[in-house]
Amino acid sequence: MPQRPPPSDPLPTLLDYHPPTEPDLVVIHEDNDILIFDKPSGLLSVPGRHPSLWDSIRHRARKRWPTAEMVHRLDKDTSGLILMALNKPAHAKLGMQFEKRSTRKSYVARVDGVLTDDEGLVDLPLMTDWDNKPRQRVDFENGREARTQWSVIDREEIATRLRLVPLTGRTHQLRVHMKAIGHVILGDAFYAEGNALAAADRLQLHAEELGFVHPTTGEDCTFVVKAPF
User: Using CB atoms within 10 A as the burial measure, which of 23, 172, 201, 213 is most buried?
Assistant: First the structure.
């Protein structure tokens, strides 16, 4: 019987942190209340606990906008739209929208293999894989509800481009759900192996569309930034 692998320590990987530096920030929108950036793959949303992990979207933003605060986050290796608030009232109103799931978010991903169906729903509960933290895993007994809608954008020879809509907001939800249905996201250093890992030099996951109600004007806003892959 094979031995259980020892718990993995993510710290050595995180300490090898070399986020992209050019451009420093890609500003998609700015007004008196909010900021929207196109976060590159490889850059943290907020600083990590270790001193070497100081560089992040929040750190860079606060050099120009000292009051900027995160409303939500993206994984380090996920690129795309990320929203910040410039004052407490805006932060509170936007935070409530994310809490109530009234925002609209969709992602583009390239996954390993060719899906035959055109769309589907992944409904699999997730929890932290404590032996391999920060990885997550499907757990029907102890996991929290997690649901992801997917639809095919394009089929390639050995991969599929998908639109992913998270109906819940669990850690690594899209990445674990795609792996669970047998179509891991290409270039995923946490969940892909072999050819699926080697197929891309970055995680092929991008937050392409973000919609919400502006906290001051009440306007319904939608922002779109196409995936760079």
Answer: 172
Could you tell me whether strands 136-138 and 147-155 are parallel, antiparallel, or unpaired per DSSP bridges?
unpaired
- Type and span of the H or E element at 164: strand 159-166
Within a 10 A sphere around the Cβ of 15, how many other Cβ atoms?
A: 12
Q: What is the pTM of this model?
A: 0.92
- Could you tell me which of 143, 111, 140 has the C-alpha nearest to residue 126? 143
Q: Are 90 and 65 in contact (CB under 8 A)?
A: no
pLDDT along the chain (229 residues), means of 10: 40 72 96 98 96 96 98 97 98 97 97 98 98 96 98 97 97 98 98 98 98 98 97
Which is the catalytic residue, given 9, 16, 24, 75? 75
In the residue annotation, 75 being an active-site residue is answered as yes
